[in-house]
């Protein structure tokens, strides 16, 4: 796609204009992809952090509950 656009621009002597348009198009595409990555990664990071916090809490409180069972016997 880009090659054919450059060839046509070269034939009509409009290379600078065509490269400016291509630059804008690719910048918009990269910006969109970056936003999509952020939208996808944010919930995943929150879930991973939640799981880590949950594991830490269970590992801290499980021995306390075991100790209370032993004391109540």
UniProtKB/TrEMBL annotation:
Question: Entry's Pfam families?
Answer: T2SSF
Q: Which InterPro entries match?
A: GspF/PilC, T2SS_GspF_dom
According to UniProt, the name of this protein is Type II secretion system F family protein
Task: Identify the GO cellular component terms for this protein.
Answer: plasma membrane
Ranges annotated as spanning the membrane: 44-64
What's in the keyword line of the UniProt record?
Cell membrane, Membrane, Transmembrane, Transmembrane helix
Q: Does the keyword Membrane apply?
A: yes
Lipid bilayer topology: Multi-pass membrane protein
Q: Which domain of life is it from?
A: Bacteria
